[in-house]
Structures are given as structure tokens and as C-alpha cells.
Amino acid sequence: MTEHQPYEVVRVHDAFEVRRYPAHMLAQVDVRGGLETGAGAGFGPLFQYISGGNVDGRSIAMTAPVLQQPQGAGVQTVSFVLPAGMDASSTPDPRDPRVRTTAVGARLVAARRFAGGARASRFSEQGARLVVAVRAAGLDIVGEVSYARFDPPWKPGFLRHNEALVEIVEPVRAD
Fold first, then answer.
1. Cα gap 22→159, rounded to integer Å
2. DSSP states of the chain as a string?
3. What are the tens digits of pLDDT across the range 56-81?
4. At what angle do helices 35-50 and 120-136 cross, to 10 degrees?
5. What is the dihedral of CA 104, 105, 106, 110, to 10 degrees?
6. How confident is the model over 3-23, as pLDDT tens digits?
């Protein structure tokens, strides 16, 4: 079974849940294309990286989800979440110059789960709904919405697990 990125559910709202993700590593590549084509274009170089296309020649387990973040001007950043326990010192450098590894610190994220195929309109609609719900809950957003895909493309759309994600500011606690 594929390892899923760990997180802790902090709070559940009607339209989303707040999660705390621990620090983790990503393998990333920037590709041209929209939400529908970007994931496919980025998958190949990232799969090569985890299949031994790195300076150590080491295979790295596939995890879920595959992340996708629109960057504007028709560019997408596609990311593989590397297995829990990998950090900057244990992550091999890529051989492919298009691929990079990135350390991500612990963070608080609002997540909205949805099913369906990889249509850009579905992803954009769910991302917009997430932003509206997060703001209505009085939470502050950091950055842009990204999307998480958990299933292979051959799985029927109605069975697919997708998520819209956005980092949020840690609320100040009044003690």
C-alpha cells in the first residue's frame, strides 16, 4: 500500500478541515500546461527521480498525494511528497536538472476533499470554495491554493480522492 503523507487533524469545519503537517521533503518539477496536462508532464521526471534517477542511484518509495500548484502563465509545479523521515541530509540530489528537492517546514493547512476526474474546472471550483469557506471561518490564507491527487489516472473519476489545499496562518491563542 502506498504511504500517505502524515498529518494531524486540528479542527473540522463544515466545508474543510484544518490539518497540521510535519516538516517534509518534496521532489518538484516545473512544467508548462494547465491543471489537466501539468500532472502528466511532471510525473515522468519525478518518477525517474524516485526510481533511481538520483546521484545515489537509490529507489525511493512512491507516496501519496501528488501535489500540483499553478504558478501562472501556464506553468505548474508538480511535487512528489517524499516518504516520512526523509530530510535534506538524507534526500539524494536529482540527476535531472529539471527536478529539485525542497524542504518544507511544519505548517497549518486547510483541506477540502472532493471526488472526480482531473478537470481543471472541477479543481478550480473546489479551490475557490475552499478559499471562501476559510475566509468565512475568519482564518488568514498564506499563498495560493494547491491540489492533491491520491489516485492513478485509470481509477474511475467518481472513486478518486482529490483535495484542494491552502496554507493558513496559525491562529493566535488567547490564554
1. 28
2. -PEEPP-EEEEE-SS-EEEEEPPEEEEEEEEES-HHHHHHHHHHHHHHHHBT-BTT--B---EEPEEEEEEETTEEEEEEEPPTT--TTTSPPBSSTTEEEEEE--EEEEEEEE-S---HHHHHHHHHHHHHHHHHTTPPEEEEEEEEE-S-TTS-GGG--EEEEEEEPPPPP--
3. 999 999 999 999 999 988 899 999 99
4. 90
5. -50
6. 899 999 999 999 999 999 999
The CB density around residue 13, as the number of other CB atoms within 10 Å, is: 14
pTM over 0.90: yes
